[in-house]
């Protein structure tokens, strides 16, 4: 056993019905640290281009961060990695997971699931003892029922569980993997991959030790980072009180809260879906393992039409996606929709996007009454939103079944120009930020290997509201224009820096929100030091940053290996090139040329070929990825 | 109380505030044993994931402690700060204290060591769990001020409800 | 002839979602407009704090005029006109 990590990985071959635990190779740990990094390299090594994401050759990889199970601040994050059935490209999806410490204490840094079982099964990991068990009783059940029955069958209500709901079983393209019922590894259809393998759940109990190489120094760095985050009173107070929806009203006032499928960015009654309102009336804080910020929510509806609703969240994304994006400000209905997505196991971002897409199709008269099977798809129809969520999860009816394929396929099928307002790129629905208002987001969303969302990076410094953060943004960008939201200048520098930071953070398993809600409290340096003192494997600040860049580059290589070029990869939904009436006085803020300019400057900055956006051989060698392009002999 | 007397303190648990982050368990485990393992934590957060209820369970340092009463050798006693602590030399490992504790606050750890929260008496300083509990569910409070704190908290909740606030 | 000022500041129990409509006969500097808001006494500190002995806009608070953040440009010297929409907001972050 090593320090800090367990040094062991669980390999589950569902086709053979066999489980094996193998040591993690030292080069993998030193080069990729853990979590997202190790997962990415494994995915590369285990796959050929062109495999079917819903076929047995697609590995499903669960990686704890290196610091999982320790008191390193906010270290309870886990990455789930596979090829996405929505995009046919690289997918990593991250989840706050109380399963992480138990898995480490059980003796495993991660799990790779291969093949496909011929009948529904679940995995039970009880310290070193691992069993593949029949899940016939669980198949078809929602996540709450699954959790309850697992705990009953195993006879311990304190085990940690991970599962899919009916959406994953029905191979919905945006089915999620849920942890402890309510926490989602949401994006890209990882739940469908799990469903395609007939894997219903994973249950874990761990009672072993995670040891630390240099306990005194680790303690010093970890505890001082905890105190520093906590002392950022501005950040902590808003996170604790209002969760991720803390900025929703601000986004609305800036005209960038998606409304009616991004037709504009302002909602009149946005207060009803604000973090402030929700936390005042419905929600209280909850938190991931070892968290300092406690941005999580649990929400309860005690009266009215949706009385009895109980769910985790709602997050900003959900309030926007099931709310303003559909023209809905009925808070309780949104909470109900959130609950349905959680227990049915679906990504709220994509689910809401399918509803708003359908609503816009309806607005433009592209659908016949027969096609929409009697639904009232007017903007603001909460009934339609809830109805569609239920139906998409189970593929009930032709219309919901089409929507369950995601907006790329749905818009291609419906045609009639609907591709123009499917807010998706590469096959993944965009998250709830109107990137027309901030150029760093526009660039980051276009470059994100899994599709247009904010989880490779949010350059919040660009819109930073404290003098220190503003200065940091200017320093990183190398120009004052870095904080000019509409200027393309300085944005490549900001995006690259933030991407490396997020990638490293995902490798060590810390929550990326600490990176950018509370700038500098978690940084390249203290993450390197926590890793080094925990594991005894020396990683300098520079090497740590390089791990971040290595992971970003490898993720791009995966997509290039699938045969796509920059013209197909570094893209945004078509609507992002239209003007928004609520931004910049209704003038267009983003053109393809402007995006190209930022992209090409970014490619050059990264040491990639400036016109093709392909990492050069030189660059790959410098990142110790030499030989990985095309033929993966390295 | 004279100014040179040690103030009696108590670790107060407010489960309503617990967000289930488990930081207390992680830090307790590490501070005592230099390793991370929930089984090495003297405080245990019991989880109801389905209903979002988290309840920290820890030695209450009972006034009328059943463990002290049942101990056949007098190994368990109360120190000047009010903490129930153990004289290891006198302990014969009979487990009666474990059997009688209504909270399950006494246990054997992974190294077969006797474990119970001693409010960090053995590691020096005030309880780490309370220091690092960001939700304020664990607080280290002078006994004479506990009622004020709890009443104040309850009053604040009532006031919030009266003025239209809710949640928690 | 008025500027609509939305005060979207927390704690919500105290301030919440409040809108003031302020009459302006001619363009007025933003700082003056905000200083003149008829806020209840205990709410002033939600907007103003002392930095280096001088009252400044509270850390983390930004002011948008017609949806555009003016804090990176003319700040509180920005001229506000009849029909403008002013919002005080906290920093945006997502998730």
Q: Quickly give the structural class of chain B.
A: alpha+beta
CATH topology of chain B: the name is: Alpha-Beta Plaits
Q: Give the CATH class of the largest domain in chain A.
A: Alpha Beta
Percent helix range of chain B? 25-40%
Structural class of chain A: alpha+beta
CA radius of gyration of chain B: 17 Å
How much strand content do the residues of chain B show? 15-25%
Number of domains of chain B: 1
Low-confidence spans of chain B: none
Mean pLDDT of chain B: 89
Number of domains of chain A: 3
CATH superfamily of the largest domain in chain A: Aldehyde ferredoxin oxidoreductase, N-terminal domain
State the end-to-end CA separation of chain B. 36 Å
CATH class bucket of chain B: Alpha Beta
Task: Report on the architecture of this protein.
The complex is a heterotrimer of chains A (about 625), B (about 170) and C (about 100). Chain A is an alpha+beta fold. Chain A is about 40% helix and about 15% strand. Chain A has three domains: about 10-205, Aldehyde ferredoxin oxidoreductase, N-terminal domain (Aldehyde Ferredoxin Oxidoreductase,  A, domain 1); about 235-420, Aldehyde Ferredoxin Oxidoreductase Protein, subunit A, domain 2; about 435-620, Aldehyde Ferredoxin Oxidoreductase Protein, subunit A, domain 3 (Orthogonal Bundle). The longest helix of chain A has 21 residues, at about 540-560. Chain B has about 170 residues and is α+β, with helices and mostly antiparallel strands. Chain B has a single domain (about 10-160), classed as 2-Layer Sandwich (Alpha-Beta Plaits), CATH 3.30.70. Chain B is built from five helices and nine strands. Chain B has helices at about 25-35, 65-70, 95-100, 130, 145-160; strands at about 10-15, 35, 45-50, 55, 75-80, 85, 105-110, 115, 140. In chain B, strand 3 and strand 4 form a beta hairpin. Residues about 10-15 of chain C have low confidence and may be disordered. In chain C, the strands form three sheets. Chain C has a five-stranded mixed sheet with strand order 2-1-9-6-7, with no helix packed on it. Chain C has one helix spanning about 30-35; strands spanning about 1-10, 15-25, 30, 50, 55, 60-65, 70, 80, 85-90. The chains are: A alpha+beta (about 625), B alpha+beta (about 170), C mainly beta (about 100). Chains in contact: A-B, A-C, B-C. The interface between A and C is large, with 45 and 27 residues. Strand 13 of chain A pairs antiparallel with strand 2 of chain B.
């Amino acid at each position: 056993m090593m320090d800090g990590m367990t040094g062991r990985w669980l390999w589950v071959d569902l086709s053979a019905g066999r489980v094996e635990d193998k040591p993690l190779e030292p080069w993998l740990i030193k080069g990729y640290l853990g979590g997202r990094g190790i997962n990415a390299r494994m995915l590369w090594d285990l796959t050929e281009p062109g495999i079917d994401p819903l076929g047995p050759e697609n590995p499903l990889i669960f990686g704890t961060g290196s610091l999982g199970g320790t008191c390193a601040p906010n270290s309870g994050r886990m990455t789930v990695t596979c090829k996405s059935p929505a995009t046919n490209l690289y997918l990593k999806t991250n989840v706050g997971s109380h399963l992480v410490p138990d898995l480490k204490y059980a003796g495993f840094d991660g799990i790779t699931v291969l093949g496909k079982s011929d009948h529904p099964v679940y995995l039970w990991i009880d310290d070193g003892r691992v069993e593949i068990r029949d899940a016939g009783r669980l198949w078809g059940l929602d996540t709450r029922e699954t959790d309850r029955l697992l705990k009953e069958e195993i006879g311990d209500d304190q085990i940690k569980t991970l599962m899919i709901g009916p959406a994953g079983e029905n191979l919905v393209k945006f089915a999620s993997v849920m942890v402890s019922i309510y926490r989602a590894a949401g994006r890209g259809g990882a739940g469908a991959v799990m469903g395609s393998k007939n894997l219903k759940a994973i249950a874990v109990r761990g009672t072993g030790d995670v040891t630390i190489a240099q306990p005194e120094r680790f303690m010093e760095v970890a505890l001082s980072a905890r105190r520093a985050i906590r002392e950022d009173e501005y950040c902590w107070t808003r996170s604790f009180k209002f969760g991720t929806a803390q900025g929703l009203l601000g986004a609305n006032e800036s005209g960038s809260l998606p409304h009616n499928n991004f037709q504009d960015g302002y909602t009149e009654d946005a207060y009803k879906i604000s973090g402030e309102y929700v936390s005042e009336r419905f929600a209280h804080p909850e938190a991931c393992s070892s968290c300092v910020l406690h941005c999580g929510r649990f929400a309860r509806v005690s009266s009215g039409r949706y009385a009895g609703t109980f769910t985790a969240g709602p997050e900003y994304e959900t309030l926007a996606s099931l709310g303003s994006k559909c023209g809905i400000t009925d808070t309780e209905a949104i909470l109900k929709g959130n609950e349905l997505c959680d227990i049915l196991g679906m990504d709220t971002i994509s689910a809401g996007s399918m509803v708003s897409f359908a609503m816009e199709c309806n607005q433009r008269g592209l659908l016949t009454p027969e096609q929409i099977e009697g639904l009232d798809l007017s903007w603001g129809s909460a009934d339609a939103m809830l109805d569609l969520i239920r139906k998409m999860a189970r593929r009930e009816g032709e219309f919901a079944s089409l929507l369950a394929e995601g907006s790329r396929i749905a818009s291609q099928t419906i045609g009639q120009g609907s591709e123009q307002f499917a807010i998706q790129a590469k096959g993944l629905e965009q998250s709830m930020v109107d990137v027309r208002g901030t150029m760093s987001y526009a660039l980051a969303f276009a470059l994100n290997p899994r599709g247009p969302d904010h989880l490779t990076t949010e350059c919040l410094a660009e819109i930073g509201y404290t003098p220190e953060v503003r200065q940091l943004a200017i320093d990183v960008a190398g120009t004052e224009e870095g904080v000019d939201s509409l200027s393309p200048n300085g944005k490549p520098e900001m995006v690259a820096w933030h991407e490396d930071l997020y990638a490293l953070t995902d490798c060590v398993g810390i929550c990326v929100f600490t990176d950018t809600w509370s700038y500098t409290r978690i940084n390249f340096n203290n993450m390197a030091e926590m890793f080094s003192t925990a594991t005894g494997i020396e990683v300098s600040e520079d090497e740590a940053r390089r791990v971040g860049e290595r992971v970003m580059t490898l993720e791009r290589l995966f997509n290039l290996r699938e045969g796509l070029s920059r013209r197909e990869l570094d893209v945004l939904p078509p609507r992002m090139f239209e003007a928004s009436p609520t931004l910049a006085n209704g003038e267009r803020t983003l053109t393809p040329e402007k995006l190209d300019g930022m992209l090409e400057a970014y490619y050059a900055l990264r040491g990639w070929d400036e016109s093709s956006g392909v990492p050069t051989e030189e660059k790959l060698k410098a990142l110790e990825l030499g030989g990985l392009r095309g033929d993966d002999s390295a | 109380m004279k100014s040179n007397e040690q103030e009696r303190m108590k670790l107060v648990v407010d489960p309503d505030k617990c967000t289930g982050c488990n930081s207390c368990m992680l830090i307790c485990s590490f501070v005592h044993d230099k390793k991370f393992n929930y089984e090495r934590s003297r405080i245990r957060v019991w989880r109801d994931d389905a209903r979002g209820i988290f309840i920290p369970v820890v030695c209450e340092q009972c006034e009328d402690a059943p463990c002290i009463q049942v101990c056949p050798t007098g190994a368990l006693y109360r120190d000047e700060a009010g903490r129930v602590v153990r004289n290891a030399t006198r302990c014969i490992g009979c487990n009666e204290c474990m059997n009688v504790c209504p909270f399950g606050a006494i246990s054997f750890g992974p190294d077969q060591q006797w474990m119970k929260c001693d409010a960090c008496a053995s590691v020096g300083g005030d309880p780490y769990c309370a220091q690092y509990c960001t939700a304020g569910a664990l607080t280290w409070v002078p006994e004479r001020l506990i009622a004020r704190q709890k009443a104040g908290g309850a009053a604040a909740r009532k006031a919030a409800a009266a003025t239209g606030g809710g949640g928690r | 002839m008025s500027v609509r000022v939305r005060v979207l500041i927390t704690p919500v129990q105290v301030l919440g979602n409040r809108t003031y409509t302020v009459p302006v006969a001619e363009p007025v500097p933003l700082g003056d407009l905000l200083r003149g808001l008829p806020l209840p006494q205990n709410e002033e500190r939600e907007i103003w704090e002392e930095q280096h002995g001088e009252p400044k806009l509270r850390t983390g608070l930004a002011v948008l005029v017609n949806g555009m953040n003016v804090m990176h440009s003319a700040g509180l010297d920005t001229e506000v006109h009849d029909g403008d929409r002013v919002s005080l907001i906290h920093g945006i972050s997502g998730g």
